[in-house]
Amino acid sequence: MTDTRRRVKVYTLNEDRQWDDRGTGHVSSGYVERLRGTSLLVRAESDGSLLLESKINPNTAYQKQQDTLIVWSEAENYDLALSFQEKAGCDEIWEKICQVQGKDPSVDITQDVVDESEEERFDEMSSPGLELPPCELNRLEDLAELVASSLPSPLRREKLALAVENEGYIRKLLELFQVCEDLENREGLHHLYEIIKGIFLLNRTALFEVMFSDECIMDVIGCLEFDPALPQPRRHREFLTKTARFKEVIPISDPELRQKIHQTYRVQYIQDMVLPTPSVFEENMLSTLHSFIFFNKVEIVGMLQDDEKFLTDLFAQLTDEATDDDKRQELVNFLKEFCAFSQTLQPQNRDAFFKTLSNMGILPALEVILGMDDVQVRGAATDIFSYLVEYNPSMVREFVMQESQQNDDDILLINLIIEHMICDTDPELGGAVQLMGLLRTLLDPENMLATANKTEKTEFLSFFYKHCMHVLSAPLLANTTEEKPSKDDFQTAQLLALILELLTFCVEHHTYHIKNYIINKDILRRVLVLTASQHAFLALCALRFMRRIIGLKDEFYNRYIMRNFLFEPVIKAFRNNGSRYNLMNSAIIEMFEYIRVEDIKSLTAHIVENYWKSLEDVDYVQTFKGLKLRYEQQRERQDNPKLDSMRSILRNHRFRRDARTLEDEEEMWFNTDEDDLEDGEAVVLPSDKMKSEEDLMEPISKFMERKKLKDTEDKEVLGKSSLSGRQNPSFKLSFSGSTKTSLSSPPSSASLNPGSPGSPGSPGSGARNSPPTTTVTTKGGLVGLVDYPDDDEEEEEEEDGETKEEPLPPSKKSKLSS
């Protein structure tokens, strides 16, 4: 059945005692073979999928609330609710439930909730229903004691609720309240406070509907004013009748909607302000009150959404220039409250709500409102804009990009937001902080959509950097034209810190857009002017900005920094800070330590060559001496590539017990990278001792001399291999693929790829600038291994094929040859 009578929403109660919307569909009842009984079935109206299949259990307590709600528990902590669009549909399903359980459809609950012990349950069930004392002034104390004693027992609580409901007891109590208040009977008023509070804790919808009716609700609030724990009564009724005013900015023609708004406001006030904060044991007793408010709000938002005339009039008056300022302020405040109201809705309802507002033209209306002079109106419009950005940032981005095709940059919505951030008059910049957060959300690539036809990130960032970035950076550029900030008051410093925070976010999350902007506009140099600010937080923001740039390890940025000598203001700030151990000191040292640890060679060389004199006397940390050591090692590698290669031999070779020729040693010597070696140390085999560089140079020299003398013999061993340029620090080596011997050492020890000490492809090499010392060319996929003589005797023995002994490691041979 697909008519609107059976149209329902399915809700489940979550752990936070809030109702979660599980979907909208159409309910029916029928026999389900699998469940072996009559069941409730709800099929989704979107795709016909099964939202709910629940057997009508004869022992389950079903409650009917507010004429359009049916609530029940499937398990101990699993509550369900069906919210009907029409009362007629609710009545039909309720009759079916009552028919299955053999109950009269006129009742609002089909079962008594029983979870007592067997003995207590027998005693309670064998006793007649709860009898209430007469509603008289002298019996109020007895009634208060009865209510207090019934609350701990679910069965007694249920019987008390039925008795109060059936006898119309609430209206009699409220009449008695008026008598006590006229007589100023404080004791009777205190008893009535305890009684009414206890009735709230009975958690029964039928009682709430009586208490929250127009004729009863103010007297109920009056009863709750006389808390015995307080010396004087509260004045809640006075606030609700005199202070709180209901304003109809747009006339509401529907009396039911108006009544629902009044009721919801008052019940919300009772929950938040009148009722005492419930204890841990009482918290779940007010779940029905939460549900009452929740479903009222859903109804109000739905009724307003469906009233197209109301929303059309609202937006027409908002954007009409003839609307006076007071009226416009009321309209904006209503829209703000309307949006805040929607935050309690479930995702599906909230989507429908904001979609309706979008179709009505809320973004163009906000653009008009934000352009007005009234600070309060602009503040409310900002709050509304924040709801929209949090709900759907892509919708806002699409609007501003379409708008840019028709309007000038000055009146774009996003530029208005930036201008309000810059011009915030609040000394603490509360509004600016809020707007900066919204801009950050809009600029965050994580929530940008990507489809087959277009990429939102590319389109929006291109738009932003073309039309909006100059507006955002204008205060920064205007304040950094000299060596020191031209304005350095607290409010300006706060604003610049916010702008820097947003620019730092862009450096982290945007790629070439922000890079082009920083380099073309020389932004980093202007930002570093702020390191001279008297406000430490602003100077640290500038340092953080530079640190993020260095952390990218992008050579474009590094060349820009070196070309403009942008470490100079940082060094100057470090020296001006002196020996003080503070955040500024730590932040600057951490930046240089990062460069040292990550071995960013270009920046290391630039810092040592240009600023070493300013840093050499800093000895309380080893950062700057470590930078100098890195620099010297780098220069040493460039000047002595042969020494670098020899270190590679020592680092990568291990003892080998299998029968291998010296050709393996030769290949390792030419192919091995030195990057696994820690700077400043040479690794030899465990049995070897560390040798000084002088000791190492001697066998290298001897080797080179022998190479010159034995060139012809080498060619015979290597076939077509050639070795040229031996006097030059850069070697070029070619191998044929004829040799079948292969390397058995791990790839990490000896790379088969053409490489050189310090080549970029090896771990830890960073972006080294030292020239390659070896180039290897292979043919046929096999690497020809070089056989070179470390010793004339060994060479002769190898050629004659007489020696079968295991070859010595190169470190041993170095010792022998020396």
UniProtKB/TrEMBL annotation:
Gene3D superfamilies: Leucine-rich Repeat Variant, Pleckstrin-homology domain (PH domain)/Phosphotyrosine-binding domain (PTB). GO terms for biological process: DNA damage response. Residues 703-718 have a biased composition (Basic and acidic residues). Residues 788-803 have a biased composition (Acidic residues). InterPro entries: ARM-like, ARM-type_fold, EVH1_PP4R3, P4R3-like_central_dom, PH-like_dom_sf, PP4R3-like. Residues 730-756, 765-786 have a biased composition (Low complexity). GO terms for cellular component: nucleoplasm; protein phosphatase 4 complex. Residues 143-633 form the Serine/threonine-protein phosphatase 4 regulatory subunit 3-like central domain. Residues 5-101 form the PP4R3 EVH1-like domain. Belongs to the SMEK family. Regulatory subunit of serine/threonine-protein phosphatase 4. This is Serine/threonine-protein phosphatase 4 regulatory subunit 3. The lineage of its organism: Eukaryota, Metazoa, Chordata, Craniata, Vertebrata.
